[in-house]
Amino acid sequence: MEHVTHVFDPVYDKKSRILVLGTFPSVKSREMSFYYGHPQNRFWKVLAALTGRSLPETIEEKKRLLLENGIAIWDVIASCDIQGSSDSSIKNVVPNDIDRIVKIVPDITIFGNGEKAFSLYQKYCREQTGKDMIKLPSTSPANAAFSLDKLTMVWREAFDRAGWCTMI
The pTM is what? Predict the structure, then answer.
């Protein structure tokens, strides 16, 4: 176990209408200093499919894809004790101030990328923000029950129910 602090900023602006929260950056993401850096994580593939854009490669392309489509991202955890990238090993959680985004964009819809992000949000952030979270299946490669096509379909349905297609 090592104590690790989240070192990169959330991506959002006043036009963001969807906020996707993960748990905490993986080892690969921490090395790259940006979200969903593991090459097997399907997050960027899902968003590219949802937006009809090509797969972003650089951090700037990823930020542009998010902001041009009203999507914000961050993680529930600001710091914790963790073993490698294992969400199940997380202890001694200090949550991020998710309300910081909610105050700027009060009508934002919050989604959790997987069960762990959902449960941590419920435990540490729900009361502060006053906003419910919609749980999505994780884009992690560990979530083998969901193919890329199935992930994309479920994420699209959830985003559409939140009115995302009419926001962009």
Answer: 0.96
